[in-house]
Amino acid sequence: MNADQVAALRVLLAPTGWVERAAGFARALRGSARTPGGLLMVGTPQQEPWHLAAHLDEESRLNGIPELMPTLVRWQVPPGAPAHLSVGLNRLEAARRGESLLVVSPEAAPGALLERVSDARHTGATIFALDRGDPELAGLAHEALAVAPEAAPLSFDAAQHLVSSAAGESVGGGRTGWRDRLARLLDTVSGAGPG
Fold first, then answer.
1. Residue 26: partners with Cβ closer than 8 Å, 6 or more residues away
2. Model pTM?
3. Is the residue at 195 inside a domain?
4. I need a labelling partner for 126 at 20 to 30 A (CA). Which of 26, 38, 64, 113 fits?
5. pLDDT digits (tens, 9 = 90+) for 154-194
6. 146: β partners
7. Residue 86 sits in a domain of what CATH number?
8. DSSP H helical segments within 64-192, as ranges?
9. For residue 194, is it within any domain?
């Protein structure tokens, strides 16, 4: 989903409250990410959150927010994986105060995941959950955004786009938000941008 599509999605969802909920979740996530590499992200054994990790990485680079660049934690690291894709579950055991753990779970979190999340919380990590309304996971999270299929007017994938886009928005520190990036893109495409 590109910037134009995210902007259109925001317009469509504006009356539903979802834009504000996603933005609130993203602000909390961004506020908790204090050090580069300190934002851990994990999915379920069946689904790693590649998509959201890629978008947060992009927002981090585009907006100069190194602490927003996620560390993808994987259930199984294949032999020969590059360093940035070689972070295994033992990283969750090393989670500490000042770090955050974003759990992306499009299905009910399995017991092994809940146990690791609980351990990370007990060692001081701030827990975020983007899920489908899992009460056990929500009970462990400091902040949760539930995208329940029967209640949400958007898909789980669309919610991830709203969160990543909002995480990169300006909060008064001079960083560029999605509207500014969209305006620059439109100026560039139309030929009206600075030359």
1. 162, 163, 164, 165, 166, 167, 169
2. 0.81
3. no
4. 64
5. 788 888 888 988 898 855 444 445 555 555 556 556 665 44
6. 131
7. 3.40.50.10490
8. 90-93, 111-122, 135-140, 156-167, 178-190
9. no
